[in-house]
Amino acid sequence: DARVTQTPRHKVTEMGQEVTMRCQPILGHNTVFWYRQTMMQGLELLAYFRNRAPLDDSGMPKDRFSAEMPDATLATLKIQPSEPRDSAVYFCASGLVEAGTEAFFGQGTRLTVV
Amino acid sequence: GDSVTQMEGPVTLSEEAFLTINCTYTATGYPSLFWYVQYPGEGLQLLLKATKADDKGSNKGFEATYRKETTSFHLEKGSVQVSDSAVYFCALSSPRAGNKLTFGGGTRVLVKP
């Protein structure tokens, strides 16, 4: 049963520390999305990649966030330095994005910055 | 840019009641439309989709019809169960926007026995 895998599932860190979240997309999918979910803002698109190239990262605070795909089996989202306002659930999703094709979501990383 | 507007919740229903969640969209071109569901502590799961005007998506008793003339994709279920309690998200994917998924704000549904 193919699925998107995210690690860690939970992360508690102190303000100022670096946080790295990882995502293994479904094999064969060519598009990867990073979303952030909070009660106040709902689901926000942070960045997405097509064939490992960044297509849009306009939703991401550039000064502290970075997203990469070092290879087709790994996507990373890094926050450095982290701040309490970054506390949220971060979702990765992957898809074979042709017209009408849906994205499959991982279970998310719940980040708490204290 | 593309946007999705859905009714705010929470929506509280009794078991076996009829559920409707309204969703309207703004997009250039001809987007595909989706409903996702999120159960507590989990990621989003695709519930149903429609890729062109007048298509009806259906799954697990839920239905939604792609209405281009009213730019709507309302979700309906004739008889809800307690297990349908979740947050429901309407979304679109537009080729002109690089096929990125744009979500509505989500609607929390609570079904009481």
For the sheet with most strands of chain B, the description reads: 6 strands, mixed
Largest sheet of chain A: 7 strands, mixed
Quaternary class: heterodimer
Helical percent range of chain B? under 10%
Top keywords for this entry?
heterodimer; A: 114 residues; mainly beta; 7-stranded mixed sheet; 0% helix; globular; B: 113 residues; 6-stranded mixed sheet; 4-stranded antiparallel sheet; 50% strand
Describe the structure.
Chain A has no helices and eleven strands. Helices cover 0% and strands 54% of the residues of chain A. Chain A has 114 residues and is mainly beta. Chain A is globular, with a radius of gyration of 13 Å. The model of chain A has no long low-confidence stretch (mean pLDDT 93). In chain B, 42% of the residues are buried. In chain B, the strands form three sheets. In chain B, strands 2, 5, 6, 10, 11 and 12 form a six-stranded mixed beta sheet that branches. Chain B has 113 residues and is mainly β. In chain B, 0% of the residues lie in helices and 50% in strands. The interface between A and B is medium-sized, with 25 and 21 residues.
Please specify the SSE layout and strand pairing.
The complex is a heterodimer of chains A (114) and B (113).
Chain A: E1 5-7, E2 10-13, E3 19-24, E4 31-38, E5 42-50, E6 53-56, E7 65-71, E8 74-79, E9 88-95, E10 104-105, E11 109-113
Chain B: E1 3-6, E2 11-14, E3 19-21, E4 23-26, E5 32-38, E6 44-50, E7 56-59, E8 62-65, E9 75-77, E10 86-93, E11 101-103, E12 107-112
Parallel strand pairs in B: 2-12
Antiparallel strand pairs in B: 1-4, 3-9, 5-6, 5-10, 7-8, 8-9, 10-11, 10-12
